[in-house]
Amino acid sequence: MSEIAEEMRLRPDRGEVATYIPELARADRRAFGIAVIGADGQLAAAGDSETPFSVQSITKVFTLTLALGKIGDRLWKRVGREPSGNPFNSIVQLELEKGVPRNPFINAGAIAVTDAILSGHEPREALGEILRFLQFLAEDSSIAIDEAVAASEKRTGFRNVALANFMKSYGVLDNPVDYTLGVYFHHCAVAMSCRQLAMAGRYLAHSGRNPTTGLLVISPERARRINAIMLTCGHYDGSGDFAYRVGLPGKSGVGGGILAVAPGKASIAVWSPGLDAAGNSHLGRISLEMLTKRMGWSIFGE
Ligand code: GLN
User: Fold this and answer.
1) Which of 11, 126, 136, 141 is the most exposed place for a label (fewest CB within 10 A)?
2) ipTM metric
């Protein structure tokens, strides 16, 4: 990990920090962190692995897990499971597919998933449920929402407002649009460190179990399926390239984080705020490529 972090620290190519959410533009382009938690619970980490950053779309993995727990396969009536081949905030397919988003990891899909979690609750309760789930998974009650990021996104999130209204017009959302978006903006604004994120992802690497306690968080079948969607859709229209280069299920966020899962082996989180053209962490992807190559962890073979 130290070797990878050192190499990443020296690289001149770092990608561009997201600026469409003004608060995210404040991130330090020089930051890089990596944390890996193996099957034995051991942590290997380097760089800025303890610095909290805005996890953004990475929470889409955890909200998908919660929504499937709440309404099971009925969720697939309002969101698909196919890669979109379009940017994360694209609206084009929504009209062709009657307001049903292509998958739960693009913005439209995650808004539909958030709406499913919200039904029957007040927005504050739904948000509390999401936050408590992350704290439970990471075994860390200090995980919190960065209110400045949430407010910044709420002020500028016109595209997400459009996506939500479009879906609402087709009856895909059950709750008032501003309630659903309020919960969505806030869960995107959760701040976590690489170590906390790797902790939270352990159940996906170990067939739905916490590998340390052996307790089941979700069924092995559900964990396998969430990993499949992470592999095919976790990096938007960069998902094919991520599978080709890294070879692991992974989910990125515009804060520059990536959660990756080496089934049976490790839960991995990397962070570097500079993004590539598809909105995925540039050095995050490169560092994961180095890691999986050295460890022989690609799910497609050595
Ligand atoms: N909160 C961000 C948005 O809705 C999440 C996008 C992302 O991380 N790709 O635009």
Assistant:
1) 141
2) 0.97
